[in-house]
Design brief:
Layout: H1 6-35, H2 41-52, H3 58-72, H4 78-94, H5 98-118, H6 123-139, H7 142-163, H8 166-181, H9 192-205, H10 210-222, H11 226-238, H12 243-263
Length: 273
């Protein structure tokens, strides 16, 4: 008797196909799940603690960096790698030797680039790369600084387009500072009107941010808006600063103090800030 194996063969092929699809979907879900586990709430909390205390607890920062380097080895999770860049940025901030500090900021940029290779729209990677470039520009000669600022501007504009609230409107804040401090045409593209637009937006979004208020105070003073400048400077000095923030915020307190020195020591009522 001749057996008709065609239905059996088709059934087997159908089963194999369904099994293959199911296996593929399972592996895809598993891979996504595995990659998404690096920034668990617990891990993010550990990172936030190290970042917050970086200036007064260096051992905790270095321990956290070592732990997260190991955790992200071989990872394809751009946000996790970008968080490593953020941690590396904090380490660079603490370095006193200028040459070594530049190297550490360059390392931060390289790690951010790894994240951006996986996801070109990763807001964290774009931001921390941009601010590391800004720090390198501060430590470099004028020619190297001018070479850095256009790519920095591009990254910050992208941050704003993707998430303007990230890092307390950090994209607006950094752009405002950059446009204010850069020389204008023909040397560069400094522009106080652009600076005002971005710092005002940062202030509107996060009115209690001390860094924004200090930058805004200095810019307003340079624009001849003396009373407004003084109000923002007074706000900075009236804001309690935790021990964990004292080292980082010293720069911004000094900016506010300079504005107060130039506007006279008599107090201006804070009013509606």
């Amino acid at each position: 008797m001749k057996l008709n194996l065609q239905p059996l063969q088709k059934g087997l092929e159908s089963f194999q196909y369904r099994w293959f699809v199911a296996a593929y979907l399972f592996m895809s879900v598993f891979a996504q799940s595995a990659s998404a586990t690096l920034l668990t709430p617990e891990n993010q909390q550990k990172i936030e603690l190290a970042v917050w205390r970086y200036a007064i607890d260096t051992p905790l920062l270095m321990e956290t960096i070592g732990w997260f380097r190991e955790l992200t080895k071989g990872s394809r999770e751009s946000t996790a790698i970008a968080e490593l860049a953020r941690l590396e940025f904090m380490q660079a901030q603490l370095e006193l030797d200028k040459k070594r500090r530049v190297q550490l900021f360059e390392n931060c940029m390289a790690i951010a680039d790894q994240a951006l290779a996986l996801n070109g729209n990763d807001v964290r990677a774009l931001f921390w790369k941009a601010v590391a470039m800004g720090k390198i520009a501060e430590d470099s000669g004028i020619l190297n600084a001018l070479r850095m600022v256009r790519p920095m501007e591009k990254n910050l504009l992208r941050v704003i387009a993707l998430d303007e609230k990230y890092e307390n409107a950090g994209g607006h804040r950094a752009l405002g500072r950059m446009y204010h401090k850069l020389p204008g045409f023909p040397l560069s593209f400094g522009d106080n009107q652009k600076a005002l637009k971005h710092l005002k937006r940062a202030h509107d979004l996060f009115p209690s941010d001390v860094i924004t208020r200090a930058f805004y105070a200095e810019l307003l003073y340079d624009e001849g808006r003396i009373e407004e400048a003084r109000k923002h400077a007074d706000f900075v000095l009236a804001t309690p600063i935790a021990d964990e923030d004292a080292l980082e915020y010293a720069e911004y307190v000094n900016i506010a103090l300079a504005v107060i020195e130039k506007t006279g020591k008599s107090a201006i009522k804070l009013g509606n800030l």
